Amino acid sequence: MEFVDLIRTPKLDRVTLHRPLCGSIEGTLCITSHHLIFSSRKDGDEELWLLHRMVDYVDRRIGALSGSLFLKCKDFRILQLDITGVEECNNVANSIECLSSLEGKRYYYPFFHRALFDIMEDGWTAFSIENNFARIKLLTDDWRISSVNKDFTVCASYPERLIVPKSIEDNTLLGSAAFRYQGRFPVLSYFHRKGKAALLRSSQPMVGTTMRRSKEDETLLHAVLGNGKKGYIIDTRTQNFAQMARTKGGGYEPEVHYPLWRRLHKPIERYTTLLDSLSKVIEASTDTGVSVDKWLSRLESSGWLGHVKDVLACACFVAQCLDQDEASVLCQRCPCMCLLCGSVLGPRRGSCTGAWF
Asked: Greater confidence, 111 or 116?
């Protein structure tokens, strides 16, 4: 497939761009293989470069002699393009729709980009696990870096190098990964200086209806606590949903096999539910024709503020367990919880470099 086959009108003059909080601009629209470029061709005016994959939806409003395209972007921007000519308007819309939804990673922009400037920092080396581990090493000698996930052979969603308890061998990690959904065995996400409490992340255990168990997984979690300490397992599902998961091969850690860990349910809706709720908020916020009362009603019906409250409340509860109880915590099914909790406890985690770990 050639990109040029999808671009029916590569260049179009007399196009008007409307952006929120900005005045209207008339200029030239160009469509390339990966970008939508708009320029007024005037000195001092900025150009708009929009990556096709940033477009989530194209809304066409076609008239008798012209049309308008509303580009709803994934960063919540809404851009309006007024185009003279019905055929030209449809050609632009068709091209954007095709180029924004190409399947196959080999068509993505990073594989075609050639930097025209000196690269000051390499993203592949900007975030070093050694630097993060060095700070932990100053506090305790109970952890190590493992390369058990080299080439992502154990877990596709974990990095190649992970921080795990020093007393645990890689064979034990492999056994635990075989017991966890998609191989996401418990790994360190944040280490709290006070009380030397650890925040770990993992997926649900594959217990099933037969109550399967894993000695390796039990050994791994026991090694996290040390002698005389207890921890919390935060399950972001409801208790009924966790029970139902057993019928599909999943489940939760039985207390009889994990006596030092106390399981608590802090329900958070599924990721798809959160996205649907966010979409309703964006739709309500971009509808400028509704009254204030109607907007408030749509905001409340979206449930978005309730979801935000639940996530923040859970993150604060986990932070309290680490800081006040000085107890280690294992979070399941919600990676954002580890990031939020770390941001609450450590200001550095709020930065781009501090968030990666």
From this structure: 111
